[in-house]
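Hello forum,

I keep getting stuck at the same step: I have a sequence, I want structure tokens, and every attempt I make locally crashes halfway through. Rather than fight my setup again tonight, could one of you with a working pipeline run this one for me? It's a single chain of 148 residues.
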Amino acid sequence: MTFEDEWAGLRADAVTRTRLDGTGGTGGGPDLSSSAAKKRSAVSALEQRIEPDSQAAGRVADETSEAAARGFQDWATGAGINEALKGWRESVKALQARLFAEKAALSGTNRLFLGADSGLAGQFPLLKPGGNGPLNADPPFPSRVSGY
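Reply #2:
Ran it on my machine without issues. Output:
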């Protein structure tokens, strides 16, 4: 399986799991759950397989193209190969930057969710220990009726 095939499969799988229109997930509803283990697995795959494999593929194409350009150096074909090689190197560099950004985004998602969860928890005093809520014996919303 090539990198492109694997990447396309992973992207297609991610799209079907995160549909917001109610067609993905379990039970027919949207599935917006987050799995720290799956994110760690994806980061690991990026670090251990995808990034090194794409670097190796880029080097192989560089070496092969450079050899071909040397073989055709006196011809217009050699200049064309060198020009194509410049574009290839730019593409490999862009891919590496994209993979790094994807890895950083996946790694930062847990921190984002934890921060969001903490922020939301702060907006619900009824659930805080020591607050006027179910974690205390105090009624959450005292009314005039309760005083009679």
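Confidence is low (pLDDT under 50) at residues 21-30, 133-141. If your local run keeps crashing, start a new thread with the error log.
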